Amino acid sequence: LLRGRHNPHHQPADHELHGAIEPPLVRVGVRDLLQHGTRVLDKVAVDNLDRFPHGIFTASILGWRAAYVVNDSHLTTVLQAKSKHRDFGWVPFFFLCNMGGLASKTVARLQSRDPKDADDAGFNADFHDLHVRELALGAPHQSVMAEFAAAWDPLLDSLRASVQAGSAGAEVDLWRWLRKAVAISVSRAAWGPRSPFSTDPALWEHFCTFADHYHPLKYMTSSVYAWRGVRARDAMVDAFERYYLDEAGSGRDSASRLSKARDRSLEKRGLSHREMARCAMSMCVGQFTPAAVTFDVIAYILSCPGLMDRIRHEVRSYIPLINTPDTTTNSRKPTIDITRASDTCPLLLSIVHEVLRLVTLGVTVRSVLHDHTLTLPLPTKGPSSPKATYRLRKGRLIWSSGLAIHGSPAHFPSPQTFDPERFLGCRFPETQVPGLFRVFGGVCLGRHIVRDVTTAAVASLISAFEFLPAAADGAPLCLPNLDRFTFDQGAAHPRGNTVARLRVGDGVSILWEGVQDWRRG
Ligand code: HEM
């Protein structure tokens, strides 16, 4: 399909490039840019869904031919594949540096390769490999989930204690609570029990301030325009630096294997502790995304009458109930291991996948390394489209839009409707239907964490609490508004009512039997 793709040493000859033109042009105006910001390429991908038969066009932003936009599912999977012609490019570096505030010389060091080390494949490749190794399903994944659960359990207990006080139900800002609980629990899963978010419980508020005020353009210009976010970022970087400087090493010693491997990769490239702290801070942004997904899942479940009861029934029926010793009352109490929710609760899992489809962009970005041609022999849309050979120019981005594919009625009937059963029977849609389920691009190495943390969080909240209808003058939990979603959010943040009325449920404890097993193992 792609000339040169099957032969990694293929360099296009002049006659191949000669005469080949770039994919058709679509102009993006100032208004679109101002209105849609970092989502502008996804917006044009959606607007032009059925316009170009081969599902690819060139987006020109204010006259600058910035990117080839792809909105065809098959072409997306072809272009995301490892290739001599394309790689991840500068976009991951841009966000790592723009969010963390790394100096340009540090960025250059990360982008360069050691000329004396023939085996140095570069930072991107290094980071990719270590995540593949340390986040694989099995023991590495289980130990990350065990640390997550160990932090989540007392947070849930304290929420239960505060809700218990009011028998008619207590009002809880669910979004605020989730942001705190996910930041503390996921950071412990990555950086261990001495992670900055575990030792300084107020740090998560700095994270929220940063995330709520982040804008890539503001951070490119001057901290004057972004002072609030920069101040919050500095507080987090200071905390991570203290963690790295801890002479006793107790923090880093108890960190996950993932975090230790990341540190080794950064240290190999000569980064100081302060620079490593900046990298760690910007990694929090993606890692804490399950907070937004969990909120959105609960809001969607509540929006469908009867669905909450079905999920609660599923959680109660399929996750084995174990009687565990209760040291406070010297008796035994019924307990479920909710880290097994994604394995045992098919409807809940389907809902998590469906919500991810609705609330994420799922974009795959690649950079064209040198001029080459792309021959598309078969029309992918419309019966009479001719075969085409396009020239892809060095330096342009390839922006494959998951949003366009997820919103296409050709792939998903009634694509804007929340259908809880859409992914029933699909355990890993990102590998089972890779062209259609674009949430994790091709593919996110944190996907098992996202899926399992979200299902565990939802299952535990649903088991521990009853969600009461909103008070007479209150509004239900808000559903996500994708128009106000920005690229850096990972998943749409709620805009509207985030306060839920909770009552403590009928008594099943959410303990972490599995955690004990993994610890023993
Ligand atoms: C809802 C949350 C998340 C979403 C929607 C998401 C989505 C994505 C997407 C679309 C990509 C680009 C894949 C491509 O290049 O085609 C990606 C890459 C990546 N993600 Fe995530 N992600 C999420 C959370 C996480 C978490 C929690 C982690 C780590 C614990 C993580 C680690 C990574 C890594 C390491 C890559 C680079 C993959 C590579 O080197 O091939 N992500 N993610």
Structural class: alpha+beta
User: What is the CATH first-level class name of the largest domain?
Assistant: Mainly Alpha
Secondary structure tally: strands: 13
Fourth-tier CATH superfamily name of the largest domain: Cytochrome P450
- Strand ordering within the main sheet: 1-2-3-11-8-4
Q: How many structural domains are formed by the residues? A: 2
Shape: globular
Radius of gyration: 24 Å
Number of distinct helices: 24
CATH architecture of the largest domain: Orthogonal Bundle
Bound small molecules, which ones? Answer: protoporphyrin IX containing FE
Mean pLDDT: 85
Distance between the termini: 48 Å
**What proportion strand?**
5-15%
Task: Return the CATH topology of the largest domain.
Answer: Cytochrome p450
Share of helix among residues?
A: 40-55%
Low-confidence runs? 1-11, 511-521
Specify the biggest β-sheet.
6 strands, mixed
Binding site for heme: 444
Keywords: Heme, Iron, Metal-binding, Signal
Pfam families: p450
Protein name: Cytochrome P450
Description:
The structure is a single chain. This protein has helices spanning 14-17, 30-36, 40-47, 73-80, 91-100, 104-111, 123-134, 139-164, 174-191, 196-199, 203-213, 216-221, 227-245, 250-253, 257-268, 273-287, 290-303, 307-318, 341-344, 346-359, 402-406, 429-432, 447-464, 513-520, and strands at residues 25-28, 56-61, 64-70, 86-87, 170-173, 321-326, 331-336, 364-368, 372-376, 388-392, 397-400, 465-468, 499-504. A hairpin with a 2-residue loop joins strand 2 and strand 3. Helix 8 (139-164) packs antiparallel against helix 9. The strands form 4 sheets. The chain has a 6-stranded mixed beta sheet with strand order 1-2-3-11-8-4, with helices on both faces. The radius of gyration is 24 Å and the shape is globular. The protein has 2 domains: 14-101 and 364-400, no CATH class; 129-361 and 409-520, Cytochrome p450 (Orthogonal Bundle), CATH 1.10.630.10. 48% of the residues lie in helices and 12% in strands. With 521 residues, the protein is an alpha+beta fold. The two termini are 48 Å apart. The chain has 24 helices and 13 strands. Residues 1-11 and 511-521 have low confidence and may be disordered.
